[in-house]
Amino acid sequence: MGRPLRIEYPNAFYHITSRGNERRLIFQAKKDYERFIGYLESSTERYGALIHCFCLMPNHYHLLLETPRGNLQAILHHLNTAYTNYFNKRTKRVGHLFQGRYRAILVEKDSYALELSRYIHLNPVRGKLVNHPLRYPWSSYLAYTEKTEGWDWLRTSFVLDQISSNRRRAQRKYREYIKDGIDEEPSDPLEKVVASTLLGSERFMNWVREKWIDRLASHRDLPALKKLSLRPDLGTILKESEKRFGRGVIESRRVAMYLSHRLSGRLLGEIGDFFSGISPSGVSQNTCRLEKALERDKNLSQEVLSLKKKLSQ
Fold first, then answer.
1. Residue 199 and residue 105: Cα distance in Å, rounded?
2. Residue 139 near residue 123 (C-beta atoms within 8 A)
3. C-alpha to C-alpha distance for 186 and 54, rounded to whole angstroms
4. What is the pLDDT of residue 134?
5. Residue 20, SS3?
6. HEC profile of 102-162
7. For residues 132 and 82, what is the distance between their CA atoms, to the nearest angstrom?
8. Counting Cβ atoms within 10 Å, is residue 79 exposed (0-12), middle (13-18) or buried (19+)?
9. Model pLDDT for residues 117-150, shown as the tens digit of each residue
């Protein structure tokens, strides 16, 4: 499996899942759950994490968290490494506790925080551990419905404020919202995730693509980037140019290099290497020459414009 894409920036909002290796238990006793909750608290103190919601299941956990400092990897490294060290020492075991890398979905919080909080809090019910989340002590649900001692670090206000600015009314309505989810199981919000990475509106996804992902696309070769980036890759540009102008035709190569410069977001050196060792200045010179040719030749200009639109879709 390819390495997952990590998009990090200040105030990003995530749904996190991390599972036990081979789906084995990661929590075996009450003190295990309590210790992990302690690490959640320390992540807010040391790394500035905002924990909105959590649920600790026997062999995995869910978090809804925000990263004001844009430091997701540092937060998750702290949680998983510290807990693994504790658990291995307590149980006299060695090796990895968690299965590979955690799953981090970047979420449009205003649209999905409420729905995801219910999805997380209902995990013990779906897993048939309890028939109501009130009976499950290892999630943040109790803090959403009543005062929980020692959990001042947990941020419940953002989700509850989406229901009502009045705390008591919001808590009452949230209990009803959870009950509705028990009586009639709602659709899984994670089914709407794009490329295992993004959950949000088209506007949100376009913003993330343009502001964050297209930067990464110039430097990293990850499958998720190819799915999410608005920019076509160099191979696609050359292939489409050869379809339009003919394979092995000099015009195909010139147009492909020009469109790579204009559309791919790749560095000049990367484009030059792709086209068999052309220097960065050679790529720039090709662009200048072709632009002059487009001014003189209307038919060529229309063909290139048509190809550019196709590649930009």
1. 7
2. yes
3. 19
4. 94
5. strand
6. CEEEEECHHHHHHHHHHHHHCHHHHCCCCCCHHHCCCECHHHHHCCCCCCCCCCCHHHHHC
7. 31
8. buried
9. 999 999 999 999 999 999 999 999 999 998 776 7
With 0-12 / 13-18 / 19 or more C-beta atoms within 10 angstroms meaning exposed / middle / buried, residue 281 is exposed
Encoded amino acid at 253, one letter:
R
Residue type, 39: Y
DSSP class of residue 210?
A: I
With 0.85 as the threshold, say if the pTM is over it: no
- Cβ pair 121, 133 in contact under 8 A: yes
Q: Which domains does the chain have, with CATH numbers?
A: 12-199 (3.30.70.1290), 232-312 (1.10.1750.10)
Please write the tens of the pLDDT for every residue from 28-75: 999 999 999 999 999 999 999 999 999 999 999 999 999 999 999 999
CB-based contacts of 23: which residues, under 8 Å, 6+ apart?
59, 60, 99
For range 146-172, the mean pLDDT: 91
The pLDDT tens digits for 277-297 are 889 889 989 999 998 999 899
